[in-house]
Request: fold
Amino acid sequence: MKERLKTIKTIHVGFCIGITLIYFILGDLHTLDFIRIQEMDSSSMIYLLIPISAIFLGNMLYRQQLKNVGRGLKMEEKIGAYQTASLIRWAILEGAAFLILFLKKELLLIGLFLILYMIFLKPSEEGMKRDFMIFGK
Reply:
């Protein structure tokens, strides 16, 4: 089981490092201009729906994937569903971070919070067991 978890942990690190590097290069993070809080107008408020909806949609699909796994299976047999559910959630968060980067660069700080949230969603055996107990059938 640890070997199969190693695969998903490697994928998670790849997701996090990849999006962080792209943000560093394309987002000009080395200038620290992103720290200045931009004034919010009505057009910027629409872009705030991107990360909010990504978090809710990602979590909803994650839970739905875990609910589809039968309770009678051993934990080793559930790793595939856990990996699929996690990949879906990370991909949605990464997509939202990309959208913010390319559509509204002034909200770069919000994209960084999405990346930070994705980092905190790291896979672990304890987290997998907990999530299957909470969201599983």
Remarks:
- Helices lie at 2-26, 42-67, 75-103, 108-120, 125-135.
- The chain has one domain: 2-33+43-135.
- The mean pLDDT is 86.
